[in-house]
Amino acid sequence: MTTTEAPPPASEDAPRLRRPRTRKRLVPYWLLLPGILWLVVFFAAPLVYQASTSVQTGSLEEGFKVTWHFAAYWDALGEYWPQFLRSVGYAATATVLCLVLGYPLAYLIAFKAGRWRNIVMVLVIAPFFTSFLIRTLAWKTILADGGPVVGVLNSLHVLDVTSRLGLTEGQRVLATPLAVVCGLTYNFLPFMVLPLYTSLERIDPRLHEAAGDLYARPVTTFRRVTFPLSMPGVVAGTLLTFIPAAGDYINAELLGSTDQKMIGNVIQSQFLRVLDYPTAAALSFILMAAILAMVTLYIRKSGTEDLV
Protein backbone atom coordinates (compact mmCIF):
# COMPACT_ATOMS: atom_id res chain seq x y z
CA MET A 1 0.00 0.00 0.00
CA THR A 2 1.52 3.27 -1.18
CA THR A 3 1.17 6.44 0.73
CA THR A 4 1.32 9.86 -0.82
CA GLU A 5 3.59 12.29 0.82
CA ALA A 6 2.14 15.57 1.92
CA PRO A 7 3.39 18.57 -0.07
CA PRO A 8 6.12 20.50 1.64
CA PRO A 9 4.95 23.57 3.50
CA ALA A 10 5.11 26.80 1.58
CA SER A 11 8.26 28.66 2.23
CA GLU A 12 7.94 31.97 4.01
CA ASP A 13 10.36 33.52 1.53
CA ALA A 14 8.09 32.84 -1.50
CA PRO A 15 6.02 36.05 -1.17
CA ARG A 16 9.22 37.99 -0.68
CA LEU A 17 10.58 36.60 -3.96
CA ARG A 18 7.42 37.44 -5.88
CA ARG A 19 7.28 41.07 -4.80
CA PRO A 20 10.58 42.08 -6.48
CA ARG A 21 9.41 40.43 -9.72
CA THR A 22 6.16 42.40 -9.60
CA ARG A 23 8.06 45.59 -8.95
CA LYS A 24 10.37 44.93 -11.91
CA ARG A 25 7.36 44.49 -14.16
CA LEU A 26 5.90 47.80 -13.00
CA VAL A 27 9.14 49.76 -13.46
CA PRO A 28 8.59 50.48 -17.22
CA TYR A 29 5.07 51.76 -16.51
CA TRP A 30 6.33 54.03 -13.73
CA LEU A 31 8.94 55.41 -16.14
CA LEU A 32 6.24 56.10 -18.73
CA LEU A 33 3.97 57.82 -16.23
CA PRO A 34 5.58 61.33 -16.44
CA GLY A 35 5.38 61.31 -20.24
CA ILE A 36 1.79 60.09 -20.20
CA LEU A 37 0.79 62.77 -17.70
CA TRP A 38 2.51 65.41 -19.82
CA LEU A 39 0.61 64.29 -22.94
CA VAL A 40 -2.70 64.18 -21.07
CA VAL A 41 -2.31 67.65 -19.59
CA PHE A 42 -0.76 69.48 -22.54
CA PHE A 43 -2.10 67.52 -25.54
CA ALA A 44 -5.19 65.43 -24.83
CA ALA A 45 -6.95 67.94 -22.56
CA PRO A 46 -6.44 70.93 -24.92
CA LEU A 47 -7.54 68.75 -27.83
CA VAL A 48 -10.79 67.85 -26.06
CA TYR A 49 -11.32 71.50 -25.14
CA GLN A 50 -10.79 72.57 -28.76
CA ALA A 51 -13.21 69.89 -29.93
CA SER A 52 -15.89 71.25 -27.60
CA THR A 53 -15.13 74.80 -28.74
CA SER A 54 -15.63 73.87 -32.39
CA VAL A 55 -19.28 72.91 -31.78
CA GLN A 56 -20.17 75.98 -29.75
CA THR A 57 -22.25 78.98 -30.77
CA GLY A 58 -22.47 82.47 -29.36
CA SER A 59 -20.29 85.55 -29.13
CA LEU A 60 -17.57 86.93 -26.92
CA GLU A 61 -20.01 89.33 -25.22
CA GLU A 62 -22.80 86.80 -24.64
CA GLY A 63 -20.55 83.83 -24.12
CA PHE A 64 -20.18 80.57 -26.03
CA LYS A 65 -22.25 77.46 -25.33
CA VAL A 66 -21.94 73.91 -26.60
CA THR A 67 -24.85 73.44 -29.02
CA TRP A 68 -23.29 70.64 -31.12
CA HIS A 69 -23.23 72.94 -34.13
CA PHE A 70 -21.33 70.61 -36.50
CA ALA A 71 -22.28 72.80 -39.46
CA ALA A 72 -19.39 75.05 -38.41
CA TYR A 73 -17.00 72.56 -40.03
CA TRP A 74 -18.79 72.69 -43.36
CA ASP A 75 -19.15 76.47 -43.23
CA ALA A 76 -15.46 76.94 -42.42
CA LEU A 77 -14.35 74.58 -45.18
CA GLY A 78 -16.68 76.19 -47.70
CA GLU A 79 -15.39 79.67 -46.94
CA TYR A 80 -11.67 79.01 -46.55
CA TRP A 81 -10.98 76.12 -48.95
CA PRO A 82 -8.67 78.31 -51.13
CA GLN A 83 -6.38 78.84 -48.15
CA PHE A 84 -6.36 75.08 -47.50
CA LEU A 85 -5.33 74.31 -51.07
CA ARG A 86 -2.74 77.09 -51.01
CA SER A 87 -1.24 75.75 -47.79
CA VAL A 88 -0.98 72.23 -49.18
CA GLY A 89 0.53 73.53 -52.43
CA TYR A 90 3.12 75.72 -50.71
CA ALA A 91 4.04 72.99 -48.21
CA ALA A 92 4.35 70.33 -50.91
CA THR A 93 6.50 72.59 -53.09
CA ALA A 94 8.76 73.49 -50.18
CA THR A 95 9.06 69.81 -49.24
CA VAL A 96 10.12 68.83 -52.76
CA LEU A 97 12.67 71.66 -52.86
CA CYS A 98 14.03 70.64 -49.45
CA LEU A 99 14.43 67.07 -50.70
CA VAL A 100 16.16 68.18 -53.90
CA LEU A 101 18.52 70.49 -52.00
CA GLY A 102 18.93 68.41 -48.87
CA TYR A 103 19.66 64.98 -50.36
CA PRO A 104 22.93 65.97 -52.08
CA LEU A 105 23.99 67.83 -48.94
CA ALA A 106 23.22 64.86 -46.70
CA TYR A 107 25.02 62.54 -49.16
CA LEU A 108 28.06 64.83 -49.09
CA ILE A 109 28.15 64.85 -45.30
CA ALA A 110 27.71 61.08 -45.00
CA PHE A 111 30.20 59.89 -47.65
CA LYS A 112 32.42 62.75 -48.86
CA ALA A 113 32.90 65.24 -46.02
CA GLY A 114 35.58 63.27 -44.20
CA ARG A 115 37.18 65.30 -41.42
CA TRP A 116 34.98 68.26 -42.32
CA ARG A 117 31.82 66.34 -41.42
CA ASN A 118 31.33 67.89 -38.00
CA ILE A 119 31.87 71.40 -39.34
CA VAL A 120 29.33 70.92 -42.10
CA MET A 121 26.84 69.48 -39.62
CA VAL A 122 27.27 72.55 -37.41
CA LEU A 123 26.58 74.76 -40.43
CA VAL A 124 23.39 72.81 -41.12
CA ILE A 125 22.01 73.22 -37.61
CA ALA A 126 23.41 76.73 -37.07
CA PRO A 127 20.12 78.42 -38.12
CA PHE A 128 18.45 76.78 -35.12
CA PHE A 129 20.49 79.07 -32.88
CA THR A 130 18.61 82.04 -34.33
CA SER A 131 14.96 82.85 -33.80
CA PHE A 132 12.55 81.60 -36.46
CA LEU A 133 11.11 85.10 -36.71
CA ILE A 134 14.51 86.75 -37.21
CA ARG A 135 15.45 84.26 -39.94
CA THR A 136 12.24 85.04 -41.80
CA LEU A 137 12.76 88.79 -41.44
CA ALA A 138 16.25 88.31 -42.88
CA TRP A 139 14.68 86.88 -46.03
CA LYS A 140 12.54 89.99 -46.26
CA THR A 141 15.78 91.97 -46.52
CA ILE A 142 17.39 89.52 -48.94
CA LEU A 143 14.43 89.62 -51.34
CA ALA A 144 13.91 93.39 -51.10
CA ASP A 145 13.08 95.15 -54.35
CA GLY A 146 16.35 97.08 -54.44
CA GLY A 147 18.49 94.20 -53.21
CA PRO A 148 21.21 92.38 -55.13
CA VAL A 149 19.17 89.17 -55.47
CA VAL A 150 16.35 90.85 -57.33
CA GLY A 151 18.86 92.80 -59.40
CA VAL A 152 20.63 89.64 -60.54
CA LEU A 153 17.34 87.91 -61.33
CA ASN A 154 16.22 90.90 -63.37
CA SER A 155 19.48 91.01 -65.33
CA LEU A 156 19.11 87.31 -66.13
CA HIS A 157 15.42 87.79 -67.07
CA VAL A 158 14.46 85.08 -64.59
CA LEU A 159 11.67 87.20 -63.15
CA ASP A 160 10.10 87.47 -66.59
CA VAL A 161 9.69 83.70 -66.66
CA THR A 162 8.50 83.40 -63.05
CA SER A 163 6.03 86.24 -63.61
CA ARG A 164 4.49 84.37 -66.51
CA LEU A 165 4.21 81.28 -64.32
CA GLY A 166 2.44 83.29 -61.62
CA LEU A 167 5.25 82.88 -59.08
CA THR A 168 6.21 86.56 -59.00
CA GLU A 169 4.63 89.88 -59.93
CA GLY A 170 6.48 92.10 -62.35
CA GLN A 171 10.03 92.86 -61.27
CA ARG A 172 9.64 92.08 -57.58
CA VAL A 173 9.84 88.92 -55.47
CA LEU A 174 8.45 90.03 -52.12
CA ALA A 175 4.72 89.57 -51.52
CA THR A 176 4.61 86.73 -54.08
CA PRO A 177 4.23 82.95 -53.86
CA LEU A 178 7.93 82.52 -54.69
CA ALA A 179 8.95 84.50 -51.60
CA VAL A 180 6.73 82.40 -49.31
CA VAL A 181 8.02 79.12 -50.76
CA CYS A 182 11.63 80.32 -50.44
CA GLY A 183 11.05 81.18 -46.80
CA LEU A 184 9.46 77.81 -46.07
CA THR A 185 12.25 75.96 -47.86
CA TYR A 186 14.99 77.76 -45.98
CA ASN A 187 13.40 77.48 -42.54
CA PHE A 188 12.58 73.77 -42.80
CA LEU A 189 15.62 72.55 -44.78
CA PRO A 190 17.46 71.26 -41.66
CA PHE A 191 14.44 69.08 -40.84
CA MET A 192 15.06 67.31 -44.15
CA VAL A 193 18.84 67.11 -44.00
CA LEU A 194 19.20 65.58 -40.54
CA PRO A 195 16.99 62.47 -41.10
CA LEU A 196 18.55 61.95 -44.53
CA TYR A 197 22.05 62.11 -43.08
CA THR A 198 21.15 59.66 -40.31
CA SER A 199 19.75 57.21 -42.84
CA LEU A 200 22.64 57.55 -45.31
CA GLU A 201 25.27 57.18 -42.60
CA ARG A 202 23.98 53.69 -41.78
CA ILE A 203 24.63 52.45 -45.31
CA ASP A 204 27.72 50.27 -45.49
CA PRO A 205 30.18 51.79 -48.03
CA ARG A 206 31.15 48.27 -49.05
CA LEU A 207 27.77 47.98 -50.77
CA HIS A 208 28.87 50.74 -53.16
CA GLU A 209 32.13 48.91 -53.76
CA ALA A 210 30.25 45.69 -54.45
CA ALA A 211 28.00 47.46 -56.94
CA GLY A 212 31.08 48.85 -58.68
CA ASP A 213 32.64 45.37 -58.82
CA LEU A 214 29.48 44.22 -60.58
CA TYR A 215 30.05 46.93 -63.22
CA ALA A 216 27.18 49.12 -62.03
CA ARG A 217 27.39 52.75 -63.01
CA PRO A 218 27.21 55.40 -60.27
CA VAL A 219 23.70 56.34 -61.37
CA THR A 220 22.61 52.70 -61.22
CA THR A 221 24.25 52.28 -57.81
CA PHE A 222 22.37 55.28 -56.50
CA ARG A 223 19.07 54.13 -57.99
CA ARG A 224 19.32 50.48 -56.94
CA VAL A 225 21.31 50.68 -53.68
CA THR A 226 21.64 54.11 -52.07
CA PHE A 227 18.20 55.60 -52.56
CA PRO A 228 16.18 52.48 -51.56
CA LEU A 229 18.25 52.08 -48.40
CA SER A 230 17.76 55.75 -47.53
CA MET A 231 13.97 55.62 -47.84
CA PRO A 232 13.41 55.77 -44.05
CA GLY A 233 15.24 59.08 -44.02
CA VAL A 234 13.33 60.33 -47.05
CA VAL A 235 9.98 59.50 -45.45
CA ALA A 236 10.95 60.98 -42.08
CA GLY A 237 12.37 64.12 -43.68
CA THR A 238 9.35 64.77 -45.88
CA LEU A 239 6.99 64.31 -42.93
CA LEU A 240 9.04 66.58 -40.66
CA THR A 241 9.06 69.22 -43.40
CA PHE A 242 5.53 69.01 -44.80
CA ILE A 243 3.57 68.85 -41.52
CA PRO A 244 4.90 72.07 -39.92
CA ALA A 245 5.06 73.86 -43.29
CA ALA A 246 1.37 73.22 -43.94
CA GLY A 247 0.39 74.93 -40.69
CA ASP A 248 2.95 77.73 -40.83
CA TYR A 249 1.79 81.35 -40.93
CA ILE A 250 4.95 83.38 -40.23
CA ASN A 251 6.38 83.10 -43.75
CA ALA A 252 3.10 84.00 -45.45
CA GLU A 253 2.60 86.89 -43.02
CA LEU A 254 6.05 88.45 -43.50
CA LEU A 255 6.99 87.43 -47.04
CA GLY A 256 3.58 87.27 -48.72
CA SER A 257 0.58 89.49 -49.22
CA THR A 258 -3.14 89.07 -48.67
CA ASP A 259 -3.23 86.89 -51.80
CA GLN A 260 -0.73 84.43 -50.29
CA LYS A 261 -2.40 83.84 -46.92
CA MET A 262 -2.25 80.25 -45.73
CA ILE A 263 -4.71 78.45 -43.48
CA GLY A 264 -2.44 79.14 -40.50
CA ASN A 265 -2.94 82.87 -41.06
CA VAL A 266 -6.71 82.38 -41.11
CA ILE A 267 -6.67 80.38 -37.86
CA GLN A 268 -4.43 82.96 -36.18
CA SER A 269 -6.72 85.77 -37.32
CA GLN A 270 -9.87 83.99 -36.17
CA PHE A 271 -8.40 83.33 -32.74
CA LEU A 272 -6.73 86.68 -32.02
CA ARG A 273 -8.46 89.29 -34.18
CA VAL A 274 -11.96 88.20 -35.15
CA LEU A 275 -12.35 86.29 -31.87
CA ASP A 276 -14.47 83.65 -33.59
CA TYR A 277 -13.27 80.71 -31.52
CA PRO A 278 -15.62 78.01 -32.92
CA THR A 279 -14.58 78.71 -36.51
CA ALA A 280 -10.90 78.79 -35.55
CA ALA A 281 -11.20 75.49 -33.68
CA ALA A 282 -13.09 73.89 -36.57
CA LEU A 283 -10.40 75.01 -39.03
CA SER A 284 -7.71 73.58 -36.75
CA PHE A 285 -9.42 70.18 -36.65
CA ILE A 286 -10.00 70.17 -40.40
CA LEU A 287 -6.30 70.92 -40.97
CA MET A 288 -5.25 68.19 -38.55
CA ALA A 289 -7.58 65.63 -40.16
CA ALA A 290 -6.40 66.54 -43.65
CA ILE A 291 -2.73 66.21 -42.69
CA LEU A 292 -3.34 62.86 -40.97
CA ALA A 293 -5.14 61.54 -44.04
CA MET A 294 -2.39 62.69 -46.41
CA VAL A 295 0.38 61.34 -44.18
CA THR A 296 -1.33 57.95 -43.83
CA LEU A 297 -1.82 57.70 -47.59
CA TYR A 298 1.78 58.76 -48.23
CA ILE A 299 3.22 56.16 -45.84
CA ARG A 300 1.12 53.39 -47.39
CA LYS A 301 2.03 54.37 -50.93
CA SER A 302 5.71 54.57 -50.11
CA GLY A 303 5.60 51.10 -48.55
CA THR A 304 7.32 52.16 -45.35
CA GLU A 305 4.69 51.33 -42.73
CA ASP A 306 7.25 49.38 -40.70
CA LEU A 307 9.97 52.01 -40.99
CA VAL A 308 8.27 55.03 -39.38
CA-CA gap between termini: 68 Å
The succession of helices and strands, N to C, reads: HEEHHHHHHHHHHHH
In this structure, how is the largest beta sheet organized? 2 strands, antiparallel
Which stretches are poorly predicted, pLDDT < 50 over at least 5 residues?
Answer: none
Alpha-beta content class: mainly alpha
Quote the beta fraction. under 5%
Mean of all residue-level pLDDT scores:
87
Main sheet: which strands, in order across? 1-2
- The tally of beta strands, per DSSP, is 2
Helical fraction: over 70%
Tell the overall outline: globular
The number of distinct helices, counting runs of at least 4 residues, comes to 13
Task: Summarize this structure briefly.
The chain is mainly alpha-helical and 308 residues long.
Describe the structure.
With 308 residues, the protein is mainly α. The chain contains 13 helices and 2 strands, in the order H-E-E-H-H-H-H-H-H-H-H-H-H-H-H. The chain has helices at 14-54, 71-112, 117-125, 132-142, 148-155, 158-164, 177-201, 205-213, 218-229, 231-246, 250-255, 263-272, 277-302; strands spanning 56-59, 63-66. It has a two-stranded antiparallel ribbon. The model has no long low-confidence stretch (mean pLDDT 87).
